[in-house]
Every structure is written in C-alpha cells, then in structure tokens.
Amino acid sequence: MQTSKESDVSGIFKEYEDKKSGEKVFLVRDFIEVRIPLSHYRKLEKRYPKEYIVSIAEPRKVISHVTKRELVVVTRESGIPLLGHAAFGLIDRGTNLIQVRCVTGCNLNCIFCSVDEGRRSRTRAADYLVEPEYLAEKLKEIAEFKGKGVEAHIDGQGEPLLYPYMEELLERISRIKEVEVISMQTNGTLLNDDRIDMLEKYVTRINLSISALDQKKASRLAGIKYPLSRVLENAKMIAESKMDLLIAPVWVPGYNDDEIEKIIRFALEIGAGKRYPPLGIQKYIPYRYGRKLKNVMSFREFYDRLVEWEKEYGVKLILRPEDFGMEKRPRIPQPIRKGERFRARLIAEGRMFGEKLAVVRDRVVTVRTDRKVGDFATFEIVRTHDGIFLAEEV
Ligand code: SF4
Q1: Residue 11: its pLDDT value, please?
Q2: Which InterPro entries match (predicted)?
Q3: Quick check: CB of 221 below 6 Å from ligand 1?
Q4: Which residues lie below 8 Å from residue 189, measured CB to CB, with a gap of 6+?
C-alpha cells in the first residue's frame, strides 16, 4: 500500500514510503519493488546516494510489483544458470525453436491458466526476472550450436511484456545471426501504439491470446475486468504492421463455446496470418499445477469441431510444427541423469511453495525441500524431461 506521495527520482525508479509495512519502497521500471525497512533507510540516506541504496543496501526485500511475490533477479553474478528450469531462462526441446523466458508473473488471473498465474495464484511462491545481456549471451551460445534458421520464441509462465528490458533483449537477440525469427506470446493487454512500433523493429510474429469477444465473458475468463476493446484495437494494429499475427483463444467449455467462431471471423476480417496460420485454437486442459475447471472437452470433440470450421471458413485450424517452420535439431547435451544424487547449497527460492533452486553441472535444478535458502541439501534427480531438472531431497 502506497502511503506517501510518490516521486520519480531519475525516470528509472520511483520512490515512496509504505507506512503500513514500515518500509521505504523504490519501484524500478514500474516492475521491481525494492523494499528497505524505514528505520534502516533513514540511516542510509544520510550517507549514500539513492542509486547506491537501490542497488546495494541490505537488508532488503525484492518483490514483483505485479504479483507481490518475491522476485529472484537472475544475473550472471547470481550464479543461477539459464538452462534447467521451466519458468525462466532457455528451453531446448530438440528443435530449431528455443523458448526464451525472461520474466514470470501475470497481470491477468485467467480461470483456466495452466500455470496458475496472476496475483491470485495459490501455488506460485516466487517470480524471476533475467538480466537481458545474460539471457541473450546464453541464447547466442545455443543458437550457434543449433545452426541456421533458429526461432527465438519469447513466452513464459506469465506475460512476457511485463519484462522491463524488452527492447534491450530484442535488440540483442536480433544481433544473433542464427536467429532468423523472433516470435512472442502475449495477452495483448499491455500493448499500445508505441510498444507495437518498438516490437515491429524486431519481431516476426505475435501470438495473441483472445478467448472471447463478449466483454462479460472475457472478464470472467481473465479473472479481472478485461480491457477488451484495447486488446482488439491492438490486434488490428499488429495485423496492419509488418508483423504476423496469430490469434490464440483457449476454448473453455461452458464459458466461451459461442465465442470461438466469432474469434475465427474476427481474425480473418482483420487480416491475421500472413506467412503463418491466423489462428491457433487451444483446448482447455487441466494441468496438475494449473487452475482446474469442471468441464473438460474430449480431444475427439475438439478436433471434430476444428475440422468443421476449417471447411466452413477455408482456414487451417489444425496446426503442425511444420506450419511454423519447426524442425528437429540435436539437443544441447544433458549433463545430468535421472537417479543421480548430489549435495549442493540451495541458492534461491523455488517457483512453487516447497521448492528451492540448486546448481549442478551448470544447470539449475528445482529441489523439493523444506530447507531454507543457504542450507545444503542432498537430493536425487527424479525428472530430466526436455532438460528441465526436478529433484527430491533424500
Ligand atoms: S494471460 Fe496467460 S499466463 Fe496470464 S493468467 Fe492468463 S493464461 Fe495465465
């Protein structure tokens, strides 16, 4: 809660006092909250400039301004590798597409969210923000290993456009010669003319999630008052830009059954899909750690409807990786095997409650444990799929 007048010190951070929590708050780039106990801050301000206090002063809490969860800032100096985690860094699933995950956290609270994101999340304990230079350098290394024709796909557990260093990241990625396509997922709510102009300089395709054209239904699905008209305007602007637009609704039975056909018509009307398909309709799937709804449609029913709409609208709706130029490529070698045991220090909070991060052979490993950051733990690797490592304490 902000209780004193906010002031903008340098254009990069704002500051205010939170009297309720007794903290001095610096809000960096409208995303990172650095919170310092007021009594401690009073002493520091007499001796140090604010820039120094924001960067270095301890004790401090760093939290996401959007979700209010602890924010782990992943820099080269943090010692946290960028391979091995599903929520941040880079994911190589054995193709020419590399997933680039620069930030977690979301400004929406979709009732169908597969990663239980947003401020109302009950399972996510921490968020991550990766330094752009560190991320781009690691991507370059992987892109060189993969060879020509790499797609850097910016997605994540949350809304990528919350990332406060997006232009810097895109600029760095665009200089990697093996990267021929940069694509991005977004819920579109944070876009405006200026940001679309910025994205147009670097991005080939935007996958925009719109799951209803009816205001009430859209808000019900998003879990907040959803800015529908702004998102639809943004969709039109993207379609008119040099970028390709793919509209990606999630079909949630009982919530937006009548909306999907309207979205197909809207996508075709505004000219989505130039080089790529205009629509990527997804079926709601209840995931173990995602939000769960009662009604689940069978794959049979889902694909039958897509086939009908394909005929009716003359548009490709059942998509394959080849439609996006995806092809198999050798994977970055995995240095960790299932069943191996390690002892290491827990270096940061985990993404979910009951998890911490550890480092093994230049990979980040999620360890299920109740120990604290800084403690040592002995653990066994129980999952290695797609180079994402999960371990149980033993
Ligand atoms: S926009 Fe995406 S990440 Fe955000 S809450 Fe909705 S489904 Fe989850």
Answers
A1: 65
A2: Aldolase_TIM, Elp3/MiaA/NifB-like_rSAM, MJ0103-like, Radical_SAM_PqqE_MftC-like, rSAM, rSAM_sf
A3: no
A4: 107, 108, 159, 226, 227, 230, 231
